[in-house]
Amino acid sequence: MKNFNLLRVTLASKKRFRMDFMTIKQASEKWGICTRRVQTLCTEGRIDGAERLGHQWVIPINAEKPKDARIKSGRYIKTKSGNGENEDGKKTV
After folding, report:
1. Which of 68, 51, 67 has the alpha carbon at shortest distance from 24?
2. Rounded to whole angstroms, how far apart are CA atoms 21 and 18?
3. Are 57 and 17 in contact (CB under 8 A)?
4. Banded pLDDT at 12 (limits 50, 70, 90)
5. CA distances (Å), 90 to each of 47, 79, 85, in order?
6. Mean pLDDT of 5-28
7. Rg of the chain, C-alpha, whole Å
8. Average confidence score pLDDT of the chain
9. Is 37 within 8 Å of 28 (Cβ atoms)?
10. How far apart are the first and last CA of the chain?
11. Pairing state of beta strands 7-11 and 17-22?
12. What are residue 32's DSSP bridge partners?
Protein backbone atom coordinates (compact mmCIF):
# COMPACT_ATOMS: atom_id res chain seq x y z
CA MET A 1 0.00 0.00 0.00
CA LYS A 2 1.24 3.47 -0.82
CA ASN A 3 2.25 5.86 1.90
CA PHE A 4 -0.30 8.67 1.64
CA ASN A 5 0.44 12.26 2.53
CA LEU A 6 -2.13 13.17 5.13
CA LEU A 7 -4.15 16.33 4.89
CA ARG A 8 -4.31 17.88 8.34
CA VAL A 9 -7.27 20.17 8.74
CA THR A 10 -8.56 22.17 11.65
CA LEU A 11 -12.32 22.39 11.43
CA ALA A 12 -13.47 25.63 13.05
CA SER A 13 -17.10 24.56 13.19
CA LYS A 14 -16.32 21.43 15.23
CA LYS A 15 -14.74 22.76 18.45
CA ARG A 16 -11.27 23.19 16.92
CA PHE A 17 -9.90 19.66 16.77
CA ARG A 18 -7.29 18.08 14.51
CA MET A 19 -8.04 14.99 12.50
CA ASP A 20 -6.28 13.25 9.62
CA PHE A 21 -8.07 13.45 6.29
CA MET A 22 -7.42 12.26 2.77
CA THR A 23 -8.46 13.80 -0.52
CA ILE A 24 -10.73 12.20 -3.09
CA LYS A 25 -7.72 11.24 -5.20
CA GLN A 26 -6.04 9.54 -2.24
CA ALA A 27 -9.26 7.68 -1.36
CA SER A 28 -9.67 6.49 -4.96
CA GLU A 29 -6.11 5.12 -4.99
CA LYS A 30 -6.58 3.47 -1.59
CA TRP A 31 -9.92 1.84 -2.50
CA GLY A 32 -9.11 1.05 -6.15
CA ILE A 33 -11.99 3.01 -7.69
CA CYS A 34 -12.10 6.14 -9.87
CA THR A 35 -12.19 9.65 -8.43
CA ARG A 36 -15.62 10.39 -9.92
CA ARG A 37 -17.10 7.41 -8.05
CA VAL A 38 -15.65 8.69 -4.75
CA GLN A 39 -17.18 12.13 -5.47
CA THR A 40 -20.55 10.48 -6.06
CA LEU A 41 -20.29 8.50 -2.81
CA CYS A 42 -19.50 11.71 -0.92
CA THR A 43 -22.40 13.57 -2.52
CA GLU A 44 -24.80 10.74 -1.65
CA GLY A 45 -23.58 10.81 1.97
CA ARG A 46 -22.41 7.20 1.91
CA ILE A 47 -18.93 7.85 3.34
CA ASP A 48 -19.04 8.42 7.10
CA GLY A 49 -17.33 11.59 8.22
CA ALA A 50 -16.77 13.04 4.74
CA GLU A 51 -17.18 16.81 4.72
CA ARG A 52 -17.06 19.49 2.11
CA LEU A 53 -14.54 22.28 2.65
CA GLY A 54 -15.07 24.97 0.04
CA HIS A 55 -15.17 23.16 -3.28
CA GLN A 56 -13.37 19.97 -2.24
CA TRP A 57 -14.23 16.94 -0.13
CA VAL A 58 -12.16 15.73 2.82
CA ILE A 59 -12.54 12.13 3.96
CA PRO A 60 -11.33 10.77 7.32
CA ILE A 61 -8.24 8.59 6.90
CA ASN A 62 -9.96 5.72 8.76
CA ALA A 63 -13.15 5.80 6.61
CA GLU A 64 -14.05 2.48 5.06
CA LYS A 65 -15.07 1.97 1.46
CA PRO A 66 -18.88 1.66 1.28
CA LYS A 67 -20.42 -1.40 -0.30
CA ASP A 68 -21.41 -1.08 -3.95
CA ALA A 69 -25.20 -0.69 -4.00
CA ARG A 70 -25.53 -0.17 -7.76
CA ILE A 71 -27.68 -2.55 -9.80
CA LYS A 72 -25.42 -4.82 -11.82
CA SER A 73 -27.83 -7.47 -13.06
CA GLY A 74 -29.80 -5.23 -15.40
CA ARG A 75 -33.05 -6.52 -13.86
CA TYR A 76 -34.46 -3.22 -12.66
CA ILE A 77 -37.57 -3.39 -14.87
CA LYS A 78 -40.73 -3.80 -12.79
CA THR A 79 -41.60 -7.47 -12.90
CA LYS A 80 -43.64 -9.58 -10.52
CA SER A 81 -42.02 -12.82 -11.52
CA GLY A 82 -38.49 -13.49 -12.67
CA ASN A 83 -39.65 -14.73 -16.10
CA GLY A 84 -39.66 -11.28 -17.78
CA GLU A 85 -43.40 -10.67 -17.60
CA ASN A 86 -44.89 -7.51 -16.16
CA GLU A 87 -48.02 -7.29 -14.02
CA ASP A 88 -50.29 -7.65 -17.07
CA GLY A 89 -48.67 -10.91 -18.07
CA LYS A 90 -47.10 -9.32 -21.16
CA LYS A 91 -43.47 -9.91 -22.01
CA THR A 92 -41.06 -7.06 -21.32
CA VAL A 93 -38.33 -6.25 -23.77
Report:
1. 51
2. 9
3. no
4. very low
5. 41, 10, 5
6. 69
7. 20
8. 77
9. yes
10. 46
11. antiparallel
12. none
